Structures are given as structure tokens and as C-alpha cells.
Amino acid sequence: MTPQFTPALPIHTTSRSLGTAACLLAATASALLLFFAVAPPATAQTPTLVVVRAMPVKAKKSEAFPPQAPLTKSDIGEVKVGGKVAPVTAFVPVLHDPHSPVVQLMVLLDSEQMLGSGGQFGDLKQFFKDMPSNIEIGVGWLLEGRTVVVQPFTTDRDLASKALVAKTREEASDPKNDNGNPFSCLRDLAGKWPNPDPAKLRAVLMFTDGITRSNGQPASGDQMNPDVSGASQLLQREGIVPYPFYWQDPIVPGEGRSEGGTLDGQTNFSDLASETSGAALYDGMFAPGSLSPLLNKLYKTLESEAVLTVNAPGKPGNFTRIDIKTNNRDDIKIFAPDSITIGNILKK
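Request: output the structure for the sequence above.
Response:
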């Protein structure tokens, strides 16, 4: 008898398992590809500083307004950098706080003006002495489109005061002492800030009449003076807050010097301050008899300022818009620069 064998039934267990796993892997891969195609990549959060203060709710940024009461952290509402929310991580007053940052304040004198010849430097020296210990003071000149530093930043008030030397009439009228456009000088300073330290704030107090006599570009209509606009952009990029102080000699040192149109300098100062969160220091059409009232205004302005640290969405070095709202305050707005450079907090 021939043995009869029942043919073995085919077993597909392994092949079915492998097939199921392959399907699952393919489905997972498709889901991941779909997720990364739809979901935006995570945005870097970069610590960034911004100097702010309060302004009256009905005031325009281009208008001069008196210093307001100091802000508190609870006054700060939503902050957006480049149109995206930037959480606030720190709030510190510029002055009179144990954690107030060091401020490098560069004081610039106009090489074609005789400021100080009438005793005005006494007011400025007193201002130096009144500054809190976290303020470092440097002194320089506006000269031929550049800044010439004669006293590096120091906390020695007497040393800073000794650098204040008035120009004689002969010196102020010498063509070699032409300032060469004060806003060109500001751009020069921003590009070569002395002893730069990313941990310190930067500010400049500039005494001049704000008129662009040399190398100046004419403004068109209601547009901002191109020299002022260029200086404003670079100051914002470098995180420098300007405080332009209007000074024009009552007696013109030399013949043939253009004194500009009515309020040209003051308008330039207001435009510069409006974009940079600075403050234009002037009182009407003429230079003040005493510097003290406007220097006192500057001191109160500094007292009203605070430094915010925000986690800005974006890569360090990006220059972009910043917008800040108040929190439950209908009487004030936040005065801040129009734009900032992301990541302006760096390690030493």
C-alpha cells in the first residue's frame, strides 16, 4: 500500500505579521511627513533688551511731552517682536534700583559752537555729580562728520568734568572745526562705540543745533530728513538711546554760516527721538540761558525709564519691529523704539 500523506497547509503567520508591521511603519512615516509639512518649526527664543517709558495716551511720538511717572512691571501688557508675542522675563528701572544696569552716557559737544564760554559748563558739571553710580560718562566732540572721544567712559565725575573745554570764537569759526553734519557724527559713534560692553546700556547726550550744513541731504515735503533717518536706523540697530540738546550760539562765531530755517534743528531732534525712544531737549526757538532746566528734564526722563528683557522669537541679529501695549492703563502708552536688534544681550 502506498502511504497517503495529507499535504501540509501553508502557514502565513510570519508573512502576515511582517506585512502588518510594514503597513504601520508606512502609515507612521506618512503621518510624520504630514506633520512636519503642516506644523511650523519651533521658533528660537532670544533674550533681548528694550528701554521703555510712559507717554500720555493722547500724545504723538513726534511731540515733546513731559516725563511721566515711572512705569511698573504691571503696566506692561503684550509685547510683540516681529509681529510675534515675546514674553517679558525681567523689568528693571534704569536708575535707583539695586539691579539697575550700568549706563554708558557719551556727552558730545559741537566743535563749531562756543558752548561753555558763558559759564554753562557749571550746570553740566553739576549734572555729572548728580548722576547715580551706575552711570559711566564719556566726553567727545562732533567734528567733520565723525566723533572724537577725548574722555573714555568713567565713573570719576571730576575727570569727566575736566574734559569740558569751551571753544573760543576763533576756534569755533575755523573751518577745520566744522561738525560736518551732527547726524553723520552720530552714525560714526554708533559704528565705533568706545569700550563696547553688551551688558551695559548705551546713551548719548548731544549738544548741537541739529542743522545739517555740510554733506546734508535735503528733506522732501513732510518726509524725515534722510540724514536723521539714517542716524535713527543705526542707533536703533546698535541699541543707543539719543538725547539731543538744542544749543546754538547767540552770536554766530563766523561769517557766512547758515543757521538753517526756523525750528529745523528742533524738528530733526523730535524726529530722531520719536523712532529711538530718546528725548529731544529744547525749549522754543532759542538756546536756553541756563542748561539746568533741560538737564533736570533729562534726569527725570532717565528716572522714568525701565529696561525690559523679553524672549524675542527669532535669531540673534535680526532687526525687526517691536510693539508694546499697556496692561489695564487707559491714560498712558508705552514709548519705545520702533525697531530693535534681536539678541542684543550677549555674554561678555
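The first strand starts at residue 45 and ends at 56.
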